[in-house]
Amino acid sequence: MSIPKLNHYPLPRDAELPENRVNWDIDPNRAALLIHDVQHYFVGFYGDDNPLIDTMIQNIQALKAHCYEHNIPVYYTAQPIKQGKHERGLLSDMWGPGLQDPAQQPIVDALAPTEKDVVLTKWRYSAFQKCDFEQQLRDKQRDQLLIVGIYGHIGVMTTAVDAFMRDIEPFLVADAIADFTREEHMMALNFVAKRCGKVVSMSEILGTQTQDLTSLDGLKAHILTLIDCEEDEFDEHESLIDYGLDSVQVMNLISLWQQQGIETNFIELAQIPTLAAWIELLEERKED
Amino acid sequence: MTHPLPLTDSQHAMWLLHTISGRGELFNVAECLEFKGKISASWLQQALQHVWQASDMLACRFISDDSYTPKLHHDNTPPHIICQDIAQDPEDVLSFAQQFAKPHLAKPFDLAKDALMTLFLLRGPQQDYLVIVAHHLLLDGYGFGLFSQSLNRCYNALSKGKPLPKLRFTEQQELLELQQSDGYQTQQNQARDTLNQWLDKIANVYSYSTQKADVSEPNHRLTSTFSQSVWHTIQSAAQVTKTTSSEILLAAIAATLVEQHQQNQVTLGLVMMNRQAIVELSSPCVQSNVLPLPLELNEQDDLSAVAHQINQQIKALKKVQSYRVESLKRDRQKQGKSLSIIGPTINLLPFASTPKYAGVETSSHILSAGTTDDIMLQIHLLGDTPATVDFDSNIARYDSDSVKNIQSRIFTAAHLWATQPKLSLKSLCKQLSQGNLEVS
């Protein structure tokens, strides 16, 4: 009945994010950040040294710093301990008694709130339920909400739905949330993108460039991480097979291109195994 | 080009195995291309003819003289695609195709007389299925991909009313010239020395079975696919350890052997594509080679350490991949050393593609990649799609329960280690020995 033990999985890449229906832009004067339920208790189900959680925390740290820099207020949710049956309501039927140990209640150390932040008490899936969160946002003239934390398809998604119904624009930060599984993570992103909000990535918010694996420079930078060759010794007209690029690495590249709608296969790439020829092929496929 | 021509080392090795064994059917391979709709048999036959005649490595017969020296003779006659109607489309295409191909796989080709490929177009009410049975001498896994891709290009050209494309297959003579060059021969000599040095350091080679029984019947196949969530964890672990999913699977296989034999020295057999130069990459004929991948593991190693050792060892193996396993065994025999040079054979298959035939989607099913006398794991790597593993085994050495147990141990090891990449090999083996198994 409790939350299951959770494994890590790769966070979605930018090219995998669902297409948004809305074209909202984040405005620092209208936005607030919500860091959802990153308490020791909920994070604990992922075990120690979980790469998914480590990455999520790093991303939330970066996002929080960005929000401080742009005067975007930061809110946290945290569930209380030892809720009575009446307080916890139907959550008991679904998840059991929940948080009991006081040591498990605080936000994880790496994301500990500062005095500038507001910590909301969380009672239900949505951060807005049984809480004056909406009013607090209105008081600060905020009608956009960036949502990060755990768990993607439960509280995070439900809070996004609730925000939408209150005319607050929710933005789900795809690579700053974690979930039970990657399928549920993607389901939450798909639902929000199609029905109640906008899905964004860290790179989009922070304005950092992601590697374009269909451009000469982007692909070259990526391939240099896979082979034993210094950049100044690399020749884009030499065989990548001679440089040591192997079939499995090529297959991974094919998957990445496929996410961008470009179809290739190992055999056709192997017959023209140079970076220059691959870029030419990718350009042709983009035009198809 | 003047024919007849000599064979390459790989072709010759395969010809010898076929001829000496008296069991030519063991070297048959088969694949089924499932069309998600109906296609034109006429265009397919025309496409086949064009592909066939574009390569003298396909359009040939292997005829030997009295001194058992085979030569490649050019023969332009393509095989005729045999069309058969089937009453209904099968629900389980793989099982259906395996069943259909079974009698054809069991029949040896006559290397001197036959085109080494037989094709059947099975026509169901909704879909068509192309079953291809070929001799390994003609095509290996990569060669099958090259052949299929060319067939697809030609079919699509015909469907659009365009001229048939100029196909750029390597000719036998070009491949011979490359492989007879001084540079290639020097590389071969170095490879021979390196591989023999590696083997000299190995005390014993273990597989999952200690029996030595020969193949008496077709291999048994158990197919298992990783669940989506376990595969995601493996992919995530690959990111964390800066390796690849395939290296994690190889690490898991190595761990199960360490656990079973209580030995930290593991020697896998790895199928190598054995194509480096462009000339080789445009050749459909057999070139793949199975070579030892020796690993010297430490019980304190974590997933990252083992996967990195595998990565480095594969890089070293690539440099020696052109030296034939048959030659290596001959070297060992001459020195009076053990001929047992590899444990379980692993075949990583990243060649899958799903081309469209005039808009009709396809999916390919490998029915047989040859016969093993021990156990072969064919790992189908499809990027983000969970890997499927075919466990092909010699039933004289492995009963079905033991193969299920091997599958379960490998899948469990991969799952446990991906979930906890910092777990030591020793701890992982302990968990495996405690029977912490699951069927994923």
From TrEMBL, chain A:
Its cofactor is pantetheine 4'-phosphate. Its EC number is 3.3.2.1. InterPro entries: ACP-like_sf, Isochorismatase, Isochorismatase-like_dom, Isochorismatase-like_hydrls, Isochorismatase-like_sf, PP-bd_ACP. It is an enzyme of class 3 (hydrolase). The keyword Transmembrane does not apply. Residues 210-286 form the Carrier domain. It holds the Pfam family PP-binding. The modification O-(pantetheine 4'-phosphoryl)serine is found at residue 247. One of its GO terms (molecular function) is isochorismatase activity. Binds 1 phosphopantetheine covalently. Keywords: Hydrolase, Phosphopantetheine, Phosphoprotein. The keyword Metal-binding does not apply. It comes from the Bacteria. This is isochorismatase. The lineage of its organism: Bacteria, Pseudomonadati, Pseudomonadota, Gammaproteobacteria, Alteromonadales.
Automatic annotation (TrEMBL), chain B:
Residues 5-427 form the Condensation domain. InterPro entries: CAT-like_dom_sf, Condensation_dom. One of its GO terms (biological process) is secondary metabolite biosynthetic process. GO terms for cellular component: cytoplasm. GO terms for molecular function: catalytic activity; phosphopantetheine binding. Gene3D superfamilies: Chloramphenicol acetyltransferase-like domain (3.30.559.10), Nonribosomal peptide synthetase, condensation domain (3.30.559.30). SUPFAM superfamilies: CoA-dependent acyltransferases. It comes from the Bacteria. Transmembrane segments: none annotated. Pfam families: Condensation. This is Ferric siderophore synthetase subunit F. It comes from Pseudoalteromonas luteoviolacea. The lineage of its organism: Bacteria, Pseudomonadati, Pseudomonadota, Gammaproteobacteria, Alteromonadales.
